[in-house]
Amino acid sequence: MPRASKRKSDPVRSSEPAPKRATAKEVERIDNFFASYANTSIGMIDPEGVEKLCSDLRVEHTDVRILMLAWKMNAKKQGYFTQDEWRTGLKSLHADTLKKLKKELPELEKEVAKQNNFEDFYCYSFRYCLTEDKQKSLDIESVCMLLDLVLGRQFPLQVDSFVEYLKIQKEYKVINMDQWTNFFRFCQEIEFPDLQNYDACQAWPLILDNFVDWLREKLTAA
Asked: With b meaning 16 or more CB within 10 Å and e meaning fewer, what string describes 63-72?
């Protein structure tokens, strides 16, 4: 009886380590993938490594999918990926080689496009571009480029108009997170370009009130 009992339990014991071995192997491949782009002196992938990754993926470093990849990793510093961030993102994507990562980029786009994910990605993109300690706002030029990159395909008319306004107005030199997130809400809620349901008495940032006034004058003049 003892032998029979042992034989019955053997398959359970022998099958338990298999998933752990597979996970360890995957992490090892992800780490090797990381090492091929990392700057060994700082133990991170730096801007030069990111540029090499983009070249190998055959995408521009300004491609929104690279920003999406940073979002997936929850990368904290623009242009840099730590090993932990790399592991987090690539394990989630099940991408332990360049070929697999390239294949997963369209799936990553679909994931980001989901409503809840996109809002999180939109906010993340602003925070990711805050490169200085305690920085809370972005200059107008950076905001214009980021809006076009992140929101341009989804709301092209709104983004083009707002970017045009930002470039000609003189009152604001920077944009903060509240203004950034409220512009996304504006795109979602306000009829465009007639703006009929825009109510300045609601809790909109002043910059959007000014933008709407400018746009209405422009449309009237046309």
From this structure: ebbbbbbbbb
